[in-house]
Amino acid sequence: MEYFNAFWVGGLICALGQVLIDKTKLTPARIMVGFVTAGVVLGALGLYGPLADFAGCGATVPLTGFGWALSEGVRKAVGEQGFLGAFTGGLTAGAAGTAAAIFLGFLAALLAKPRDKS
């Protein structure tokens, strides 16, 4: 059941993104920022944590999950460090995912054989 919940929740989030791309004039960059911001707002309201517990990776892997991770990191860091945590918490919480994306992107660039599109 855990895999099923991850599949349908993640699929619903991705389907929402596809509908926004197809039916609106929003650019993909604006949609991405909207998803991250929605994750932050839902995390701040305490609504995204239960969804992440229910759906697992289906809720944490999409961009809304990245926004939620940032908001959780800031919340915890502010509790521990005070005002300075508002600036460091999000960076700390998102560091592992960001580092993995940079490393894997670099690895893909080394292994790929670029060529002209023509």
Q: Percent helix among the residues? A: over 70%
Termini separation: 47 Å
What are the segments in which pLDDT stays under 50 over at least 5 consecutive residues?
A: none
Q: How many helices in DSSP terms? A: 6
What share of the residues does DSSP label as strand, in percent? under 5%
Strand/helix succession: HHHHHH
Structural class: mainly alpha
Number of strands: 0
Largest sheet composition: none
Question: Could you report the average pLDDT, rounded to the nearest whole number?
Answer: 91
InterPro entries: Spore_V_AE, SpoVA
Organism: Candidatus Acutalibacter pullistercoris
Pfam families: SpoVAC_SpoVAEB (PF03862)
Protein name: Stage V sporulation protein AE
Could you give a short description of this structure?
This protein has 118 residues and is mainly α.
Describe the protein in words.
The protein is built from 6 helices and no strands. The protein is mainly alpha-helical and 118 residues long. The termini are far apart. The model has no long low-confidence stretch (mean pLDDT 91). Keywords: Membrane, Transmembrane, Transmembrane helix. InterPro entries: Spore_V_AE, SpoVA. This is Stage V sporulation protein AE.
